[in-house]
Write a structure and sequence with these properties.
The chain is an alpha/beta fold. It has one domain: Divalent-metal-dependent TIM barrel enzymes (TIM Barrel). Helix content is 45%, strand content 11%. It has 14 helices and ten strands. It is globular. The structure holds D-allose and zinc ion (2 copies). One of its GO terms (molecular function) is metal ion binding. InterPro entries: L-rhamnose_isomerase, Rhamnose_iso-rel, Xyl_isomerase-like_sf, Xyl_isomerase-like_TIM-brl.
């Protein structure tokens, strides 16, 4: 497909205008690997400054209106004040990410720890996160557990599932109306033998048992190499159990690189399933979040680039000729069907996205607009001693 007709153009632009991408507070802060954190200039010193940076991304792209918080990294005394500050900046607070992986107590696990006192402490943190959601107005509690074992025999795999189910139940029962529990799975790391929520099947089974407010999070970096992530998207959407994405790119393990940088074709295939499932609309309830770290590249431009990458993949997926695809599939035309998909993927959507931004009164090139804005020079001068995201030291 080289030409985009006027009708298609309008349809695609309308859908793109409704797209929402949530950026993570921790992506604005310093981060690194277990080997080194390279501090950068102008990095936020507190949650307010992270929100200010997120608001810049939104002002330049118009599709990133919320920012996810992480507790305790973004702990403040007055969450209502933080929410008000965000609103004044033109954004809102998004998902609350719990953290039960950083305390010494969690060496053998948090909610699946053999010690009931440690489990209690971990569950209390999850409940506290729901209290915070009440104050921030957040809809989603995002749960990722580092829980697991390193050696066969270290703990009883089945009993740990019982402890997990009990903790999730208690947390789920604390949710208010309109609040959701999002359960994120991860194949391995930091546990190297048996992770307690290692895959979508485990997350799905627990969410199914919990009820309608529990949904699965797909972090694109959390699979074995070669895993067909778009299959998981299609399956969970069909089952009504896909709640959110943590978008990022991986070459090896949980690399947390910019989404769309390692495998833009995979991102397109994922977004194709989203469009196929009519799940792009915010009312469909899928939270499209980034979960990334920008260890060596400047952070705000990297987040802008990531947002644009998601937008480009989405635009291409919206260009798939659904009727032609269905007809070729029905006719068993293998090459024809594949060609329909590839035509859309190979279309250069950058002019269309530039046009969309111009329609919205934005600069057609958000990267260049940021570079010209002087914002970096301002924060570099103002902020000394930026905050570390919380891990990787
Ligand atoms: C960890 O690997 C997960 O991707 C988490 O979603 C996340 O990076 C962490 O909990 C920060 O909130
Ligand atoms: Zn994640
Ligand atoms: Zn991760």
């Amino acid at each position: 497909m080289t030409q985009i007709d006027a009708l298609t153009r309008d349809r695609v632009k309308r859908a793109l205008r409704a797209q929402r991408i949530e950026t993570p507070s921790w992506a604005y802060a310093n981060s690194g690997t277990r080997f080194k954190v390279f501090p950068q200039e102008g990095v936020p010193r507190n949650p307010y400054e992270k929100i200010a940076d997120a608001a810049v991304v939104h002002r330049l792209t118009a599709v990133a209106p919320t920012v996810a918080l992480h507790i305790p990294w973004d702990r403040v005394d007055d969450y209502a004040d933080l929410a008000k500050y965000a609103a004044d900046q033109g954004v809102a607070l998004g998902a609350i990410n719990a953290n039960v992986f950083q305390d010494n107590d969690y060496k053998l696990g948090s909610i699946t720890n053999p010690d009931p006192a440690v489990r209690r402490k971990a569950i209390d943190h999850l409940l506290e996160c729901v209290d915070i959601m009440d104050r921030t107005g957040s809809r989603d509690l995002k749960l990722w557990f580092s829980d697991g074992t390193n050696y066969p025999g270290q703990d009883d795999i089945r009993t740990r599932q019982d402890r997990l189910a009990a903790a999730l139940r208690e947390t789920y029962d604390r949710l208010g109306d309109g609040q959701r529990l999002l359960l994120e799975y991860k194949l391995f790391e930091p546990a190297f033998y048996a992770t307690d929520v290692p895959d979508w099947g485990t997350a799905y089974a627990h969410c199914l048992e919990l009820g309608p407010k529990a949904q699965v999070v797909i972090d694109t970096g959390h699979h074995a190499p070669g895993t067909n992530i778009e299959f998981i998207v299609a399956f969970l959407l069909r089952a009504g159990k896909l709640g959110a994405f943590d978008f990022n790119s991986r070459f090896y393990a949980d690399d947390d690189l910019m989404v769309g940088s390692a495998d833009p074709f995979q991102l397109f295939r994922i977004m194709h399933e989203i469009i196929r499932g009519d799940a792009l609309r915010p009312e469909a309830g899928i939270a499209f979040m980034l979960d990334q770290c920008h260890n060596i590249e400047p952070k705000i431009p990297a987040i802008i680039r990531s947002v644009l990458n998601v937008q480009e993949a989405t635009a291409k997926a919206l260009l798939v000729d659904a009727d032609a695809l269905a007809a070729t599939q029905q006719a068993g035309d293998v090459l024809g069907a594949n060609a329909v998909l590839m035509d859309a993927y190979h279309t250069d959507v950058r002019p269309l996205l530039a046009e969309l931004r111009a329609d919205l009164g934005l600069d057609p090139d958000p990267m260049a607009a940021y570079a010209r804005s002087g914002y970096f020079e301002k924060i570099r001068a103002e902020r000394v001693g930026g905050q570390q995201a919380g891990w990787g030291a």
